[in-house]
Design a protein that fits this description.
472 residues; alpha/beta; Rossmann fold; seven-stranded parallel sheet; 17 helices; Glycosyltransferase; EC 2.4.1.-; glycosyltransferase
């Protein structure tokens, strides 16, 4: 709603602030686009280092500083140093950005900030602005960390403490819990960041979560006393779900240079549901032996495959395997990057071998692609548990205890189970189709997530309208 007073136009204005990594920028930028499509003014605030990688026509982009403007996190060389610098420099420059907009016809009404950055709420309140965190993990993972923060789950978690029982969540064994809970000293800065998400929740005006009602209803019900979240997911580009945002085929942010359309051209030569798409995300780095095991497993399976391997990881591939996939791409193709959504949406892709990061999990669910989970750390282990045992849209590759990694025989076994037409494979395919429809339903007009977003938009427009009348 726009209010015209004395020739000035006021419009509810949401500033969206992601943590500056690909997996966090994507869903928050998608949320900003969704809000803009519903009549709000949306601005994304991001670090100087990531600024040039973002382009979304309906969303303004403004820089703030993390203190490492030339190189971002890589320049900091330490999680502790980066997070402390981002808090101090980010708070200062976010305040400057708010004050800059106060002098315009569209002052910032609300800040939706990544839950990793609770200091943004302090900045919002100091400047008389509404604010709320956006949780980029699943509700189940949030529930686990919420129990740790509330003192109901003690660290470290040992085998004898399992299964861990969390209301609304299936019993979790050690291999299902975020990886460092049994060794909290291994990633102290990351653990603090996960727990700090809850530090000032009671002061937030809203809480947002990138999940949807039918996907995690029991989990959310179990958390209702401490976490009154608005479920607004899946935050996946509109073209792959409801199609209501014109031309919305990508997130609009890429910290890596995308490839040409070679991947798509290769997929066009393959039969329907015949290709295994493999990607372990932007952060995971596999050991050389595990890269070799997966490589030979893919070849031995006999299925066509498209594997995304970062240039920095390529040297870990066996030479014979690389020769086979570069000289003759009939069965397999190795690329350094591609548009994952386009790959998952392609008819020839029948399986997604994934690290089970939450964005990739939601993309697999939203596009109805059966999955083989190869989780490595953090929340990925819990996501893999749900993929295999709760939503039953895939299988989880078993780690060989002797070498601590997935062996080639397990890769072949998992691919056969998911790709073939056996009883389990048919069940997985049926469930994948079901969850695709439920994801689409949630975000489409009148769906659970859509109605929740609409309620937020209306409440913010009403706040803006009251402020306009008061100011005049």
């Amino acid at each position: 709603m726009e209010v015209v007073e004395n020739q000035k136009i006021y419009k509810a204005h949401v500033l969206v602030l992601p943590y500056p990594s690909q997996g966090h920028i994507n869903p928050l930028l998608q949320f900003a686009k969704t809000l803009a499509s519903k009549g709000l003014k949306a601005t994304l605030a991001t670090t100087h280092y990531t600024l040039s990688s973002i382009s979304a026509p309906s969303v303004a982009v403004e820089p703030i500083s993390d203190g490492f403007d030339g190189g971002g996190f890589a320049q900091a060389r330490s999680e502790e140093l980066f997070l402390e610098s981002f808090k101090s420099n980010g708070s200062r420059t976010l305040t400057q950005l708010i004050k800059k907009h106060q002098k315009t016809n569209n002052p910032i009404t609300c800040i939706v900030y990544d839950s990793f950055l609770p200091w943004a709420l302090e900045v919002a309140k100091e400047n008389g602005i509404l604010g709320g965190p956006f949780f980029t993990n699943s509700a189940a993972v949030t529930a686990v960390f919420g129990r740790i923060y509330g003192g109901r789950l003690k660290l470290p978690v040992r085998v004898e403490d399992c299964p861990v029982v969390v209301p609304g969540v299936p019993a979790l064994n050690l291999e299902d819990l975020p990886s460092f809970l049994n060794a909290p000293e291994s990633y102290p800065a990351y653990l603090r960041m996960k727990l700090n998400q809850f530090s000032n929740l009671e002061e937030a005006d809203w809480i947002f979560s990138n999940t949807f009602q039918s996907l995690e209803s029991e989990v959310v019900k179990g958390m209702s006393e401490q976490w009154h979240a608005k479920l607004i997911g899946p935050m996946v580009p509109s073209a792959y779900l409801d199609g209501r945002i014109g031309g919305d085929k990508g997130y609009g942010a890429s910290l890596w240079k995308p490839l040409d359309d070679g991947c798509t051209r290769w997929l066009e030569t393959k039969p329907r549901n015949s290709v295994v798409y493999v990607s372990f995300g932007s952060m995971v780095s596999l050991a050389q032996q595990e890269m070799e095991e997966i490589a030979w497993g893919l070849l031995e399976s006999g299925f066509n495959f498209l594997w995304v391997v970062k240039d920095s990881e390529r040297h870990k591939l066996p030479k014979g395997f690389l020769d086979l996939t570069t000289q003759n791409q009939e069965k397999g193709m190795i690329v350094s990057w591609c548009n994952q959504l386009e790959m998952l949406a392609h008819d020839s892709v029948g399986c997604f071998v994934t690290h089970c990061g939450w964005n990739s999990t939601l993309e697999g669910l939203s596009l109805g692609v059966p999955m083989v989970g190869v989780p490595k750390w953090a929340d990925q282990l819990t996501d893999a548990k749900f993929i295999a045992d709760v939503w039953r849209v895939g299988v989880r590759a078993k780690v060989d205890g002797g070498i601590g990694m997935v062996k080639r025989e397990e890769v072949v076994l998992c691919l056969n189970e998911v790709m073939n037409e056996g009883e389990r494979g048919l069940e997985i395919k049926k469930n994948a189709r079901k969850w695709r429809e439920l994801a689409k339903e949630a975000i489409s007009e009148g769906g659970s997530s859509d109605k929740t977003i609409d309620e937020f938009v209306v409440s913010l427009k009403n706040v803006c309208k009251r402020q306009d009348v008061y100011s005049c």
